[in-house]
Amino acid sequence: MRKKMLVLMIMFVAIFGTKLTVYAACNEEESKQIQSRLDQIKITYEHIEGMLDSNNELVNGIFKVNITGLTEGLVLYNPEKDILIVGNADGKFTKSGFIHGTYEFKLYPYDLECTTAYRTVKIDFPRYNSYSDSYLCNGIDSTKFLPCSKWYEYELDEKTFMARLKEYKNTESKKDQNTIVNVTKNISDSFLKFWYLYILGLVVILAILILIKKLNIIKKKNKKWK
After folding, report:
1. What is the distance between the alpha carbons of residues 151 and 209, in angstroms, rounded to a whole number?
2. Could you tell me the pTM of the whole model?
3. Who has greater pLDDT, 213 or 165?
């Protein structure tokens, strides 16, 4: 009964505004202190890897929420899943079962007479891309082809996915062919350059040898005339 009354009062605050008149039971300084505590609450999430359903089959795209700082006298309420958590001394809680979508977490003081203290935290859980687990994405760089990435935000039907995958593979194949052509051309150019320098070197060496031979002949002739 207490929980139902608290939920109804929280919904009342959410509907009629987050900033209401301070009641006598909660002065401005107390309200600031409670607001400071609410602001220190942290809500994070993580994907549950390898989760199994009731049929023992693998399920992906399920998240759990980790809450810290929800200490005594504070309350967290999530309307989408009808979760109500009353803080304790430890202030740490974990809740599972969240899927893709936006969830709103409302934070209040347990004593609702202090209604000026209020905070809302919205969390967007990403869409899990089932194609990322498919053999079709094996060997695909998901940073280049996003439909194979784990958290691709758009939902594609199989026909669209296959068409985009085929287009991507064709583009990559053309890039590879161009790379091969460029490498072959570079090798060919390097080979021709090598032979050009090789032949040029031979010509220079032969020219030097011929020049030396002629100089020796001239030198011998000069010796005979002396």
Report:
1. 73
2. 0.62
3. 165
